[in-house]
Amino acid sequence: MEKEQFINDDGTDKNDNISSRLQELIRQENATGCLLGWEAGVWRSANHVVSGLSRTARSHDGEDIHRNLGHLLYELAKADAGQSMEDASEFAPFLYRVLTSLLSDKLSILTPDTNSPCDTSALTPVDDKRDLTGWKREINSMINFEAGYSAGSCPGALFKVTDNTNLPYPEERNIASLIEREFLFRKGAADQSQKTLVEQCSLYLLDIIPPCDHSQKKIRWRRFAFTCMVPLANMSENRKKTLRRGHLKITPEFRINDQDFLFLINANLQISLCDMDISKFLGDASGRINGQLMADILSWIGQHITRLGHVYLSIS
User: Fold this and answer.
1) pLDDT tens, 73-95?
2) Which of 90, 108, 101, 118 is nearest to 34 (CA)?
3) Domains of the chain: which residue ranges?
């Protein structure tokens, strides 16, 4: 909503129109109203969680409510982590996971109001014959792929590999050749169109450490699976051949900035890197596969758990 039309230059409300307009938006019986109703449910659920935590903190005799609440949050984080924590920076991931779980539980039992706009008049399937392929790719991207992720490694993090990437183990120095043989054409590209497809692909390392191991800091080594980003423009004729290769997993199709692509994940090509060496050898991540898709990938990887990968051991 454009709020400028309701507010004076000094920030004061011109009249009471902004309040009326907000009420109108909240009460509208369409998909926007449905989302706003869900948002209100999230707020109510969060209030329930905060209220419950505060009551529990007050029930503990001794110190004031704020210190008791601090003790309670520490115990929740400790229980989730399964260990004591001394560094303050270690608390947040575990505490947030517990609080998110409590929030989700409360939200699941708060049923929508009887006059909720989430009904068949607001939520309807597309009933015309428009091509929805591009839109579905954008939906996949919204749910399963975070293109802007650039922090440290985590489950699903993608690190780009080029001919200049210096990994501490024997590997194929020619990236195009590796993509050609291991992902697309085992016997080599047969014609110029296949060679063009190879040239347009990019190679990545996908972090395949389970989320629980990551959050609880159980790991010293991280496993990665070689992953190829394939533009869809030239993929259609090779899709069936790729699907017949059991060690390759093909992801749903994505669209980012009008570029359509998918990922091929190779279960036969896995490597391990010492956790402290990731930034040194790989730099920052350039994207992240998340959500249910990453869970499916980890489950599929589990079927290939006996595949051998390279291990780099550094004694310092």
Assistant:
1) 888 888 877 666 666 666 777 78
2) 118
3) 17-109, 133-311
Name residues whose C-beta falls within 8 Å of residue 200's C-beta, 6 or more positions apart in sequence: 230, 231, 233, 234
As to burial, measured by CB atoms within 10 angstroms (0-12 exposed, 13-18 middle, 19+ buried), residue 89 is exposed
Contact assessment for residue 229 and residue 201, using Cβ atoms and an 8 Å cutoff? yes
Residue type, 144: N
What lies within 8 Å, CB to CB, of 220 at 6+ separation is 274, 275
For the four alpha carbons of 148, 153, 154 and 157, in that order, the dihedral sign comes to positive
pLDDT tens per residue, range 28-37: 667 777 787 7
Name the residue among 110, 97, 127, 126 with its Cα closest to residue 38.
110
Which residues are CB-neighbours of 229 under 8 A, at least 6 positions away?
Answer: 201, 202, 203, 204, 261, 262, 263
Question: Cα(229)–Cα(198) distance, rounded to whole angstroms?
Answer: 10
256-289 burial, b at 16+ Cβ within 10 Å, e below that, comes to: eeeebbbbbbbbebbbbbbeeebeebbeebbbbb
Q: What span, in angstroms and rounded, lies between the C-alpha atoms of 159 and 243?
A: 24
Pairing mode, strands 202-207 and 254-256: unpaired
Ramachandran region of residue 83, left (φ > 0), alpha (ψ -120 to 50) or beta? beta
The CA distance from 71 to 101, in Å, is 19
